[in-house]
Structure formats: structure tokens, C-alpha cells
Amino acid sequence: MKNYKEVADSVFERRKQYEIIKRKKTKILFRSLTPICCVCLIVLLGVGTWKSGIFTQEIPTSQPESVADGAESGNSQSTDTVSGDNSSKQQNSSSENNDTSNSQAGTFDLCGVVYYNGRYYVQKDSVRKECVVVRDKKIGTGNDFEGTYNYECLKKLYEEHGLEYRSEYYIESEIYTVKDNPDLLCVVLSNGGFVVLEAE
Amino acid sequence: MDNGASSYRRFLEGDDDGVVEIIKDYKDGLMLYLNNYVQNIHIAEDLMEDTFVRIVIKKPRFSGKSNFKTWLYAIGRNIAVDYVRKNAKVCEISAEGASDIIRDETDVEKEYLKDERKILLHKTLANLNTDYRTVIYLIYFENFSIAETAEIIKKSYKQTENLVYRAKKSLKSQLETEGFVYEEL
User: Fold this and answer.
1) What fold does the segment set B1-113 form as a domain?
2) Contact status of A28 with chain B (Cβ, < 8 Å)
3) In chain B, where does the domain assigned CATH 1.10.1740.10 lie?
4) Which positions in chain B touch A17 (Cβ < 8 Å)?
5) Residue A21: per-residue pLDDT
6) pLDDT surpassing 80 at residue A131
7) CB neighbours (10 Å) of residue B87?
8) Is residue B78 helix, strand or coil?
9) Of A112, B77, B79, B152, which is least packed with CB atoms within 10 Å of its CB?
10) CA distances from A168 to A69, A81, B15, B121 (A)
11) CATH (residue range B115-185)
12) What is the pTM for the complete model shown?
């Protein structure tokens, strides 16, 4: 049996041990808290950046968009690399054609269409990335065919939709056949853009 | 007499001697009280120490509504009840250990009670159930009132009163069986 002094000593010793353990735990807690906070911060930053849409933005292709000059001579062949992104970009530039700023009131998105040889050639998303288009012969300008590259047709289309048509919406264009592929047409716009149309 | 309240206040103000005084005054009584729950004087000693450790580490607030001793015994009871609950299924005592325990317990009792009749009574008490043993110990050995006892064992006044009545009756019958006559019971 312990006397009261031994009990008191034992009690104070246990208090000392408890305080040492408590101090250690606090130390460990703070030590582990720092990397946990860092990880949380990184995760938050990552989520924030992801949500801001930086990673989901469309990256414009680095491929040249211009069509080789030789194509205009009719006999030479040029190779253009068309990507899906490019195509969609052209879709805007051709269909809105015509409409440089989509934010303007009274405009709408148009899909490029040309009526040629009894078939409708339509701008499609199916023209995939890295699709190689070899331009062949010039078959005329946009105004020579029915479709969205025709000034009168475009104007009529706007009027049918009850929208005001402005002359600056129209962009002059030249239409070419595509070598070895009668189902495709290539539209070269005067603003430097081009669109590939596919027969339906 | 403030029964240790001033010592505890001194301890809270930073004087460790306050706790030493409390340990000196209440160590044996608390240990014997806790022995009623665990029936092992060594475990009761550990629990008594745990009670003082809890006071020293946690520094619980003593409001002064009750006697300091009542408050201290209530803390000790909580610790003992927790212990009994945790170790309800464990009961390992070797033959040698058991004889040591009995000898130690008798020594402490002798020193604390210093009365042969009380010692005999205390031994008879050991045969009663825990609740009876506890209330009789608190009321007749530690001189707590029924209200204070009720506070320590966390029962109502009426329940405690009934418990004391039944405990006395049970003790009386046991003492009579052993041929012991105690007028006060």
C-alpha cells in the first residue's frame, strides 16, 4: 500500500507524462496539418482552375489554314489539312458568314450548304481532324450556286427568319472540287478561311 | 471546516500542495469506498489514484453546492463504475494474489477503522450486494447524510432511503446468522 506521499508523487508523475504526451500529440497534429493544408489548397486550386474552363477550351490548330496559291491556276494541286476545330471555326466564318460578331442582335448560326450537280453539299462535323483535302478545279463562286454562299439566298434566308440582313454579313467565296473525292467540295472564303462540304 | 474545498482552490491557483493535502485527507476513505465496487483493494487503490489524477489533469470545477468529500467520492464512483463496466467479464485473481489482497485490505481497514467491531461489521458487509454495501459504508463509516449519499450514488433521496432500509435489514439478518448483535442496527 502506498502512503499519501507516494500517491501524490505518482499522481504528479502521471500528470507530467500526460502533458508530455499531449505536447507530442499537438506537435504531430501541427506537423501533419501543414502537408494536409497544402494538399487541400492544391486540390482547391486544381478544381478552381478546372472549373474556370482553361483545360476545356478549344485549342486552335497550329496547321496553316491557307490554301495553296497553285490551286487557283486549276492544274496544280494543293494539300490542306482540315481539323474538326478548323471546320467549326470555318462554319462560323462562313455561315455567320457573313456575320463577324455573333453577339450582334439579329444574327444566327448557319451551316454552309451548296447545291451542285443535283446534290446538296453540306458543311459537316464528320470532316474529321487531320482529314487531308486536295483541292482540284474551281467550279465557280458562291454566287453561282444555290446555298448559303449565295448573296441572294442568304438574304432570303435572313428575311424568312424575320431578321435584318446586312451586306457585311456576306463574304465572297470560290468553290472547288476535291481531287479523288466527288463527295466533297472546298469553299475558299475571301477572308482567308475555307470550308469543306460533304455531299448528302 | 471546508473539507478540502480550500485545498482544491489553492491547487487551482497553482499550488500543488493543495492536492497533496486532499490526498492525505481522503486517500484511505476513498480507497475503501471504491473497494465496495471492485472488491479488490489493489484495484481500488489504482482507482483512487485515477480519481486524483483526473482531478489534477482535468481540473473539474467544484461549484460548492455539495460537500467537497461528496463531490470527490462521486468522481471516484464514476471512475469505479467505468472500470467495473469495462472489466465486467474479466476476473483473474491468483491464489497468492488473493491472500495478499486480503492481508492488504485488512491492514488498511485496521488503520482506518481502528475499531474491532467496525472491522467485523465491515467483513460482514463484504457479503452484501454492491448497492447495500455502498450505502452502509457511506452512511455509517464515512458519516455521509442520506442526501449526500444519494448525490454520490446518483439516486433520488427516496431511493437511497429505501436502499439504506433494505441494506440494514439484510445486514442485520446476516449478523444474526453469525451470532453478532449490534444494537444500532
Assistant:
1) Rna Polymerase Sigma Factor; Chain: A (1.10.1740)
2) no
3) 1-113
4) none
5) 94
6) no
7) 12
8) helix
9) B79
10) 26, 28, 93, 116
11) 1.10.10.10
12) 0.50
